[in-house]
Amino acid sequence: MTPKPAAAQNAAPKSFQLSSEIHAYLLAHGTPLDDVQRDLIERTAALGPIARMQIAPEQGALLELLVRLAGARSAVEVGTFTGYSALCIARGLGPEGHLLCCDVSEEWTAVARGAWDRAGVADRIELRIAPAAETLSTLPPEPSIDFAFVDADKGGYLDYFEALVPRLRPGGLLAVDNVLWSGRVVDPSADDSDTRAIRTFNDHVAADPRVTTVMLPIADGLTLCQKRVDP
């Protein structure tokens, strides 16, 4: 069980669940979405309830900004779905960058491919349709990845983390989505396999000396890890 925070850390929270009005205000005061992004959001929404797997627009903007700030040129994504996060990461990488996307669905990633083409970033994205653990195991073991994003099956999170961290360059960034899991991580009555997997993952990451970590209450929770420069 996750220990309770110290009293000095346990002040009244400043983060909150967004209302639809606040979310609209938030989006209106950032860089506007372009036609490709809006179309991809609409096409994904048309898929029905599964569309909830798409990241929030503000998450995409943050990923692109982080990739730019890191000066990243080599990136890996685990869990691509219809390609919104990959589109944002690829834009942040710039024309000289390379993004490896790992997914198992030809159907969903077909939507992604169309959006990447329209956005002019398809030439910097490599999509591999296979279990992500298999794809990651084929990557060179040297620490050469600048940025990684994980948003896939929750039971695989710990394995993906352990495959990616050794391959991150010192100072490289890893972002992981859904770490708050709609609040179920702190709900004692929630005991399903996904919730247990995320709790285990969160505890493991928080205790890992290889990375500096912050968990942000953006969308469904986003953990950012920077690989330490010093051993």
Task: Kindly describe this structure.
The chain has helices at residues 20-28, 35-45, 57-70, 84-93, 106-119, 132-137, 157-164, 193-206, and strands at 74-78, 98-103, 125-129, 145-150, 168-177, 211-216, 222-227. The protein has 231 residues and is of the alpha/beta class. It has one domain (18-49, 56-227): 3-Layer(aba) Sandwich (Rossmann fold). Strand 2 (98-103), helix 5 and strand 3 (125-129) form a beta-alpha-beta unit. It is globular.
Strand order of the largest sheet: 3-2-1-4-5-7-6
- Measured distance between first and last alpha carbons: 28 Å
From the 3D coordinates, which CATH architecture would you assign? 3-Layer(aba) Sandwich
- What amount of the residues lies in strands? 15-25%
Order of helices and strands: HHHEHEHEHEHEHEE
The level-1 CATH class: Alpha Beta
Tally of DSSP β-strands: 7
Query: Number of DSSP helices?
Result: 8
Rg on CA atoms, Å: 17 Å
Number of domains: 1
Q: Average pLDDT across residues?
A: 93
Contiguous low-pLDDT stretches (5 residues minimum) are: 5-10
